[in-house]
Amino acid sequence: MPENLNRRTFLTAGAALGLGATAMGAFPQKGVGGKGPVAISSANGMAAVTRAMELMKAGSDPLDAAIAGVAIVEADPADHTVGYGGIPNEDGIVELDAAVMHGPTHGGGAVASLRNIMHPAAVARLVMKRTDHCLLVGEGALRFARMHGFPEIDLLTDEARKIWLYWKETNSKDDDRIPPPPDEMDPAVKKFFGEKYVREHGTIHLSALDTHGDVGCVTTTSGLYYKIPGRVGDSPILGAGLFLDNTVGSAGSTGRGEANLLNLSSHTIIEALRRGASPKDATLEACRRVVATNKSPRLQDAKGRPNFDVKFYCLSKDGRFAGASLWGGAKLAVHDGNAARLVECASLYDEALVE
Length: 355
Ligand code: ASP
Known about the structure:
Helix 2 packs antiparallel against helix 3, helix 6 crosses helix 7 (187-193) and helix 9 crosses helix 10. Strand 5 (204-209) and strand 6 form a beta hairpin. 52% of the residues are buried. The chain has one domain (35-156, 196-349): (Glycosyl)asparaginase (Glutamine Phosphoribosylpyrophosphate, subunit 1, domain 1, 4-Layer Sandwich), CATH 3.60.20. The chain has helices at 7-12, 46-57, 62-74, 120-130, 138-147, 158-170, 187-193, 257-261, 265-274, 279-293; strands at residues 38-42, 96-102, 107-114, 135-137, 204-209, 215-221, 242-245, 249-255, 310-316, 321-325, 331-335, 340-344, 346-347. The chain is globular. By secondary structure, it is of the alpha+beta class. It binds aspartic acid. Aspartic acid binds next to strand 8.
């Protein structure tokens, strides 16, 4: 991978570098049905919902449309939370987690701690379609992807490497590494860290409702920045990072994965929808559950509130949608046929999280 590959060059060259791999395992085209399609995602998914909408309008399966949508973000070196360009683990190696679910077949597949493959969501679809399993991890997942012809590349961009190196150099006063003086810092690294050091993370979730009223969803991530090698978050865990039921709707999550793993929040949201809750009330219920189960003082602020955030996204079978987060300021991306736009999420607390 050339070091100076810029974003535009990269996206143009996407097909050669693996975007074509996102079609592997796609369902046959269904033809266009009579219902209005909808795609929702986390706020980093404006291009993704736009692509998913184009494909569904042309008769794509909702899961295929979702995977093709997030593939844009997986391939984007500027998004440090997903795929190529993701922030690596503490050893400087990018490890990806992804899962998919398919409404019409109630199928699901996932990969975790996958190295060297730009499009883990497409690999997850093949786990669903070409194995009797739901989750492959690490070396086994890589061998499976290789076997199916996914190209291998180094996922660590030069920018992500410099960010990781700066983190290492500033991580402890007691080791021998020395960070660069501020005026010698790489501008991209300076921008990334901003004024204060925050241990960040991110992900993309996309839920899609097609022209036949079927749902599909995907969550894909490079996970927690500088994580312990092998750490797996909520994203590839069915019921946590995403869940759906084709009779009810689809849901997913981004944010602190451990809080979601301890609550299986996407499953909670779908069950709330099933009981008749609106997408907004269902996602807020999941937020309240996270707060109620967050017992550790280490994870609470002075008022006992979680000192982290999680965000939930929900799309119902009839096309209603909402997002909710613990802390204020979150948005979701939506495309319901006309244009992609960002919409405010509901929140338990009005103010934004202060870390
Ligand atoms: N949920 C992801 C994880 O824990 C990270 C994120 O969405 O911020 O791996």
